[in-house]
Structures are given as C-alpha cells and as structure tokens.
Amino acid sequence: NAGVTQTPKFRVLKTGQSMTLLCAQDMNHEYMYWYRQDPGMGLRLIHYSVGEGTTAKGEVPDGYNVSRLKKQNFLLGLESAAPSQTSVYFCASSSHTGGGNQPQHFGDGTRLSIL
Amino acid sequence: DAKTTQPPSMDCAEGRAANLPCNHSTISGNEYVYWYRQIHSQGPQYIIHGLKNNETNEMASLIITEDRKSSTLILPHATLRDTAVYYCIVRVAMNNNDMRFGAGTRLTVKP
C-alpha cells in the first residue's frame, strides 16, 4: 500500500535550471495538492487539482506550474529555479466523498536545494 | 489571518496522557477541526477530525467545547514516538484548498 509517492526525494539545482517533481497516488483520490515547507514554518499551498485535467492556484503559486494529465499523477514544474525556491515540497491527495471533509494524505517530501 | 492558536511547545512524560489545546474562537458553523502531526521532517500525518461531537479513533481523542471555540487533542498514553509537531486546522469541508498549517505545537515526550 504505497499511498502517495514523491519522486525524487532529494535534488540540487543551479539557479535558472528547470525540473519537474512527480507525485503519484494509488488511492483513486480526486483531489491532489502541492505544498512547500520552509524551515520552522508550516506548509503553504502552491497549487491544487480537483480532478484530471484541472488545476488551480493556491497561496504561493508564483514561479511554479502544474499539470494533472492522469488522475493518479500530479506534476510540479519549476521553469527557472531561484534560490528562494529552496524548500521541502510535499504532495497530498484526498477523496471528495463524505461532503468533502476527508483528510489529506501526504507523501514524504522532496528536498530541493537551489544554489 | 490565523484561524487557530496553539502553544508553541509542550512536554509530556512517557506513558502519560498528552493534552494539546487549540483555540479557534472565530470558527464558523460549517468548519471542521482537523489535527495532523509531523514527525521530524516526514510528511504530515492525519490524526483525527470532527465538527462538533467528540471523536475517538485508534490514535487519539478529540474534545470540542460546546461553543466550538476551542478543542483538545488527547493522546492517551504518549510514547517517545509521539514526539512531533502537532497542527490544529479548521476549514470548511468543501474548501480543500484551505488547509492552513500554522506553526503548530512541538510536543516532546520525555522518558
């Protein structure tokens, strides 16, 4: 029972490079989310998706793009990485059943450093 | 705007109950109370949630005051593995994009 799997777990980039973080869930959840967590702080929502083919902006979307081409996958892209994007990135998913009050299930994170 | 207020840190003796408070005085009638925890640098782990009734599961109990302005998460027999940051979050059920993680409470369970 894998749950939410994030790839890669660690990555070091140079300023200006691009990369894509992959999130995969095997729980058939409709909703998926990308968060970032900076040292000593809580998580902040970057983008989210309520279904295949749909995405929306969260609290801190600038500098990121996302895609949800398949229900089980949610991709987070950095087109031109900046040192301010050094952070730990968490993906989560949740079901839309029960009136939307279902909890989110999180992956173990991707630690990204940008030099 | 912070929807919840939690103490920054708490200690608890191993084997004793850990009672973590959360103040949410501006909670609306359709907002649920959720509790998550984050152990070291792992992804947040869901613990429990409720609307107005007290809830219990295999991990913890959630006590919500009658006026819903505060709640308490109870870990009945804390172990060293319960050392973590605990987050109290309130949100409307359908607003899945409104999970606001504050700074949480850092619980340290001591032997």
Overall form of chain A: globular
Radius of gyration of chain A: 13 Å
Largest sheet of chain A: 7 strands, mixed
Helical coverage of chain B, percent range: under 10%
* Broad shape of chain B: globular
Task: Give the CA-CA distance, first to last residue of chain A.
Answer: 36 Å
Question: What low-confidence regions of chain B span 5 or more consecutive residues with pLDDT below 50?
Answer: none
Name the quaternary structure: heterodimer
The count of β-strands of chain A is 11
**Between the first and last Cα atoms of chain B, what is the distance in angstroms?**
37 Å
Decide which structural class fits the backbone of chain B: mainly beta
The proportion of residues in beta strands of chain A is over 45%
Could you spell the SSE succession of chain A in H and E letters? EEEEEEEEEEE
Helix run count of chain A? 0
Count of alpha/pi helices of chain B: 0
Q: Give the strand order of the largest sheet of chain B, numbering strands 1, 2, ... along the chain.
A: 1-9-8-3-4
Mean pLDDT over the full residue set of chain B: 91
- Residues in helix, % of chain A: under 10%
What is the number of beta strands of chain B? Answer: 9
Structural class of chain A: mainly beta
